Amino acid sequence: MTVTVKDVAKEAGVATSTVSRVINDHPSISDNTKKKVRKVMEEMGYVPNIAARNLGKRTANAIGVILPPLDSKERIGNPFYLEMINAINEEARTFQVTISVATAKTFDLLLENVRLMHLQKQVDGFILLYSDSQDPIIDYLYKNNIPFTLVGQPYKNEEDIVYVDNDNQLLGKNATDFLIENGHQSILFVTNTTHENLYFERYFGYQKALMLANLPCYPAVSMETTADLLNFESLLKETSATAVVVIDDIFALRVMQLAELSGYRVPDDLSIISFNNSIFATLTHPYLTSIDVEITQLGKKSLQKVMEQLHHTNATGVRMVIPHKLIKRETVLKLN
């Protein structure tokens, strides 16, 4: 038998309107009455009709989480996004909201999904899990004054967009500094993306570390095509590189495979350091030295920031920086 508002009201000895106000946490109801009614609701197993409540409040009580276009196996299998979704979902429970994920293979299809979610009022705001120079979605959200938090650094309108990020330039510098401290002087930066902001920032950090150490700085080694992968061995020989900084853990595993296929042993002949400290860092030997970007904190803070906007607290223009830490494992060899 389904328990109704009338059943709860009768058992608690209050009006049905009072029960409705308790469900909506209305300030006109005293704390004692709220506790009393909620206790009865729990004892009777009453579950509020969230859809009906949201319709009356004209809110969805949901946040959209937008992933970048899933256009490659590396991106589909990247644990960063799953860990982020899990962290956001955990924090969403504390705000009594749900999350809805937007995915697609192209930016055009992704924009269609996001526009539909917004126009149909399926969500109240969004969290964007990437910052890409080719992305049309951030412009759509910004121009339509839709509350959203960006995970990453925006390319423009930095003073207006709320974003949560690591200091990716410092990450790139710290990773490169660690290789330099271990005696490496010829170091490459390897990436499978050249249009995401984290690439620019981490590469700038790499350049800064090498310039400060008066060491040679090389153009970023882009591996976005099969031809690029085939050129990797010749680049290692041309530069006499003894170490590489890789854009993230999952791609670092691909780089390790390519190095070994080219006759390089990791870390004996080639040291590798990357970012994210994901589950992939310890799935194969040697274990990967990586910088932990505190994904759980990135996710939780991104949800908090979009909720601040929805509740009209002053979050506009705020940049929240999440700290990071180096996790030393087995892929960096100390040179004599």
TrEMBL record:
Gene3D superfamilies membership: 3.40.50.2300, lambda repressor-like DNA-binding domains (1.10.260.40)
SMART domains referenced in this protein's UniProt entry, alphabetically: HTH_LACI
InterPro entries: HTH_LacI, LacI/GalR-like_sensor, Lambda_DNA-bd_dom_sf, Peripla_BP_I
Domain of life from the UniProt record: Bacteria
Residue intervals of the HTH lacI-type domain: 3-57
Keywords linked to the UniProt accession: DNA-binding, Transcription, Transcription regulation
GO terms assigned for molecular function: DNA-binding transcription factor activity; transcription cis-regulatory region binding
PANTHER family membership: HTH-TYPE TRANSCRIPTIONAL REGULATOR GALS, LACI-RELATED TRANSCRIPTIONAL REPRESSOR
Protein name as it appears in the record: LacI family transcriptional regulator
Protein source organism: Vagococcus intermedius
